[in-house]
Amino acid sequence: MLKITTHVSDDASRITLEGRLAGPWIGELERCWRESEQSAAGRQLIVDLTGVTFVEQQGKALLSRMCQSGAELLATGCCMRSIVEDAKNQIGK
Predict the structure, then answer these.
(1) Which pTM does this prediction carry?
(2) 35 is in which domain, residue-wise?
(3) Tens digit of each residue's pLDDT (9 = 90 or more) over 12-70
(4) Pairing state of beta strands 44-55 and 12-21?
(5) Looking at residue 38, which CATH number applies to its domain?
């Protein structure tokens, strides 16, 4: 199960995730991301992963694509920070 919350302010769009990024929730996150990108109107996109407990391989690939498109990924804990670093390292490869 994954809870996805979006919040739009004057300067940023934030997608907050809570739970497991796996299975059908990966596609749902991608849909939310694409919608946020379309309505961003120059706002920064922030993806808050501090409430994520697990990320499946396909979820990691999606996070990499999001990072490559300019999203800022926020994470805490050594496991999630490692996933974010891996996503950032995919830029330019």
Answers:
(1) 0.88
(2) 2-89
(3) 999 999 999 999 999 999 999 999 888 877 889 999 999 999 999 999 999 999 999 99
(4) parallel
(5) 3.30.750.24
